[in-house]
Amino acid sequence: MYKIHMVDLVGQYKNIREQINSSVIETFESGEFINGRPVSLFREELAAYLNVKHVISCANGTDALQAALMALDLQPGDEVITSNFTFIATAEVIGLLKLKPVLVDVDPMTFNIDPGLIRKAITDKTKAIVPVHLFGQAADMNEILNIGSESGIPVIEDSAQATGARYKFPDGRLSFAGTMGDIGTTSFFPSKNLGCFGDGGALLTNNDSLAEKLQMIVNHGSKIKYHHEIIGMNSRLDTVQAAILRIKLKNLDRYNEARKLAAVHYDSKLGGHPGIIIPRKSGQGDHIYHQYTLRVLNGKRDELKAGLAKDGIPSMVYYPVPLSLQKAFRSTGFRGGEFPVSEMLCSEVLSLPMHTELSPDQLDYIINRILANL
Fold this sequence. Notes:
The protein is built from 13 helices and 14 strands. It is α/β, with parallel strands linked by helices. It has 2 domains: 9-250, 3-Layer(aba) Sandwich (Aspartate Aminotransferase, domain 2), CATH 3.40.640.10; 252-373, Alpha-Beta Complex (Aspartate Aminotransferase, domain 1). The strands form 5 sheets. It has a 4-stranded mixed sheet, sandwiched between helices. Strands 3-2-4 form a 3-stranded parallel sheet, sandwiched between helices. A hairpin with a 5-residue loop joins strand 6 and strand 7 (174-176). The longest helix has 19 residues, at 252-270. It is globular, with a radius of gyration of 21 Å.
């Protein structure tokens, strides 16, 4: 049996090797390594795919989050509400800009931010809400957008793990993750569902004035070369990466369907086991399984992880420490016990191999070893 990888980027590349190689060589031969034509073409194609007016490409997902907050003209000390159970980048940029991260707990089944706790966290200093669409499915955007609208607070979506996931509103309308708030952000880190061969990111918006400002921010605060209207940053998507992403975007639906099929395979054999809880779909749209994340009960997570490793099966803990207990945020005064769901999840979650190249034989082997180790 072919070696099991957490993410099989080499196997994925081999299936589109000729297209990728041709696009990269074409870029090399053009010599347009910065802001070459593939960059603008990719922006147009991603905008069409997501049905959003504007895509502003940048260097990575963290830069996208920073640029989004910069576009809102927030002041030091302004509060930004976000999830306590996520990768640090979401809150890191809040601290970097001298804003105050206000962390709230998450739903124990979907792992996404709890809208009811967002309401309770709002103060007169709250200037933005940043929901994270974790592990491949959108947060409860209908409720979050209602909260934002009622309070006059902008919503920035962190959709780094959910490019291509759709959210279903109560009226049946479908929208892609990242396109519903004032600004959406995403990452093209290689392991993402839509990933390049290095770093890359993008901002999404339907607001013309925000789009113009975001484009300036990622280009040194400039619309016209050497004329700088605001303080910005230098953050751009390499032409080579854009050329690769154009190929991968054409395959994104197929990639996401492959992940869904792998998840169905896991669900069918692991669902109902008393020692684990399989990923829960919210019912509000689809789940594209950037990660397939179990909750391992009865304190057996680390034991299971070690057992799988002995069997040649990789697994990962996303995330072992909530943001509230990270040393980087110690000065904010968060204490243990304030976020019981996040702290519980950090002791239980275990992500299994999930990618586009998983075979039924590999899935069965992983499942059998999980059952044998529990």
